[in-house]
Design goal:
The chain is of the alpha+beta class. The protein is built from two helices and four strands.
Length: 68
């Protein structure tokens, strides 16, 4: 099982990671705001992650780390 980590304080909620996830497990946390006032992204079903790292590759701000 892979582990995905988001540095939420740097995420600007662009949703590129949401769109590219083949398992559709990355979502924008609508109930959370970071220090910059953005809704950060996160993974809500980590056990379904296949570790493809598409989300990390797509992120323009390099806020996502994928560990296998």
């Amino acid at each position: 099982m892979a582990k995905v980590t988001f540095r939420e304080e740097r995420c600007k909620g662009c949703k590129l990671c949401v769109d590219v996830c083949p398992k559709k497990i990355v979502t924008i946390k609508e109930d959370t705001l970071n220090q910059s006032g953005f809704h950060p992204a996160g993974v809500y079903e980590m056990d379904k992650c296949i570790g493809c790292a598409f989300c990390a590759t797509m992120c323009p701000d390099c806020v996502i780390t994928v560990e296998r």
